Every structure is written in C-alpha cells, then in structure tokens.
Amino acid sequence: MIVGIPKEVKNNEYRVSLTPSGVDMLVKEGHRVLVEEKAGVGSGFGDEDYRAAGAVITDRDVVFCEADLVVKVKEPIPDEYDFLRERQLLFTYLHLAANEHLTRTLMKKKVTAIAYETVETLNGFLPLLAPMSEVAGRMAVQVAAHYLEKENGGAGKLLGGVPGVAPCSVVILGAGVVGTNAAQMALGMGARVTLIERNVERLRYLSTILHGNLTTLAAVAQNTADAVRSADVVIGAALVAGAKAPRLVTREMIRTMKPGGVIVDISVDQGGCIETTHPTTHSNPTYEVDGVVHYGVSNMPGAVPHTSTYALTNVTLPYILKLSALGFQAAIREDGELAKGVNVCGGHLTSVPVANSFGLPYVPLTEVA
Fold first, then answer.
1. Do residues 46 and 186 both lie within one domain?
2. In terms of pTM, does the model score above 0.85?
3. Among residues 24, 49, 232, 269, which one is catalytic?
4. Rounded CA gap, 211 and 184, in Å?
5. Which CATH number belongs to the domain containing residue 312 in this structure?
6. Residue 31 annotated in active site
7. In the chain, how many domains are there?
8. Quick count: other Cβ atoms within 10 Å of Cβ 284?
C-alpha cells in the first residue's frame, strides 16, 4: 500500500503523524511511504531522517494524489478539502460532531474517514485518544498557572501558594484521562483540587490513588455551580466519545467566578463543555468574558510536538500497519476496535453521535463496507 504523511497546516500545529521509526517499520513491511517535505521539522525530524527510514520525500500534491492511506494528526481544514478524493482512506483526529462543514465535505467526496478518537476497545477505552488526552491534561495546569499571572490577564496568583498564603482552587470537570492527568499536575503543584465526575465509582478509585488537597464531587448542577463560584481555575475535561461535549458550565456560573480567574476548556474541539468557550489558536490563545480569562486552543498538544508525535505514533502505528497490510475491508472485519473508528464511508455517516449532532441519516457500517 502507498501511505501518505502530509505536513500539518493547522495554526501552529507542529506534530507529524509518524516518526521516522514508524516509517521504517512500514517500509520493511513492503509499503511505499510518501512524506511531504519538511513535514516533521516541527517535531524535530528532518527530511533526511525520513529518507534514511526509506520514505520518499515529495510535495503535497503527490502525497494526497498517490497515497491509498493518508495519515494525519488533525482534521483537514478548508485549505485541504480540494486534496480529498473518492475512496481515499483518511486516518486522523476528526471530531466531526463539532464540525458540520467537514462532515458534509467528507460525505460529498466519499472519503473513507477513520477517526482516532472513536477507535474503541471492548471495555470502552479510547486507545488513540488517550496519549493526547494525557498531554492536554498535564498542559492545562501549566497553561492555567501561566494565565493566572497578572501580566497575562489573571488575578496575580501563584497556583500552589506559599506558606502562609492559600493555594488556588482548581475545579476539574470530568475524571477521565484528561481530568486525572490534570488533577495529578495540579495536586503536584500544591493547588486545592475539586474533581467533578458523574461516575462515583471513578471518584472512589481516584480518591485512593491521588494524594494532596483533593475533593471529589458528583456531577450535579448545584455542585458544579458552587465549585465554579469559588474557583480560581476551571478545567473542562468532559467527553462523550464521538459526540458533542455536554454543556456543564453556564454563562451565569462564569459570572460568579472571581475576577482574573482562568478557564481552560480542553473539550473545545468537541464543542466545549463551558458555554462561554470557543476554539482559539496557539497564536491567539485567550480572550476575556466577564473578567475571566478563557483559553480554548483546540490542538493543545501541538505546542509540545516532539513528545506528542512520539506518544501518538506509539498507539497509532499498530493500526496503520494493519490497514496497510490488509486493506480497509479486511482490516475492519478483523478488528472491531478499528471498525468503531469509521465515521464516514462511501458518502454515508456510520457514526450515530455525528449523525445525531446534525440530524443527518445514519447508515450502519456493515451496509456500506
């Protein structure tokens, strides 16, 4: 199979979808790998590294035109839509439930689109989302600490305080991979952390393994409103796999926050779980609403591309090898986890949450593949 690795073009997105060592494995399996020139520079990999691994370095047109399987990091943006073609196999993060334009484009062009974030194991784990969730969760606390500083628009507070001065209150909405990693970082920096989650068993488990000034609360509206009112930082980490994020914090709740507080909504790429958030970019990351700094960068891990690219390749490569060796049809028949990742096939939506988001018809994958 011919595998294409294009250069990411989203604002300040420096990740690349495969490391040179990942390319080396594909080449040794007999596949041809096309890498767009300078695709890996932002992550610390030069064209010579990919050549040494056996890749062909070429331009963007060739990568998209010749590749049977295009492997990306982020969803195609409008500038890339003209490169998409019928029966092309696209493997990347898509987050379609928050992007109707891209959804309709993939359907119209009859692209076969597999979303990293909806590949799912039998026990409900999302293996391709997990490493970037780990990165984003840890980054969220660093980002919040930065924007709490006065010169960056915050209240001028040190997240962990000092002896004789109280630490900041960090409220985390959701206790999945993102929320757990954010809690670990915030607790490690000395903050007072309130973790809000609907799954009480999950809270029970985390209360035994996380150490520090931690409070756990069941996710009911009053608990959330009370916690937000006293928060210096609110981190949105809620996720419903493949669907729009649930709206957990209202504008009215934001108005009760302390001036100079900070919002970091990691779920913004799925529509956001806080009413006042919208997507921003690394070049223009924040805005203010009701005296509260909002950070809504939808590709946070792109700021640490070296770490992120290695972490992503670690988990995507086995699926890429399978797709390359077996082809799409055989791969999804053999691997139910991969089949759950298929969002669009043959012009049809094969994801129930995405179809529900836009009132579009859903067609089971078994009927179109």
1. no
2. yes
3. 269
4. 8
5. 3.40.50.720
6. no
7. 2
8. 10
